[in-house]
Amino acid sequence: MAELDKMRRRREQEALERAERERQERRKKDELERRRAREDYNRYRMQQMAVKAQREKKLQDSIEAEDRTKKLVDELDRKKLERQDQGFQQ
Fold this sequence. Notes:
mainly alpha; rod-shaped
């Protein structure tokens, strides 16, 4: 009888230890998954910021090119008017 009690206690203790190991392993897995998800989210955010910066740069470049073109057109128009004025004065 005492031998059966010892065996039962030993099995109960082993079951408790196994349950504790499994709980620790689950906790470790969960922490790794949370860390991986955080890293993925941070990578996503960095990508989005890079895309936004590229769009803003492209827009800025476009605006600057438009301004340069407008200045060139204005300069050509001014020269054309000057030539026309000189033609009338002669």
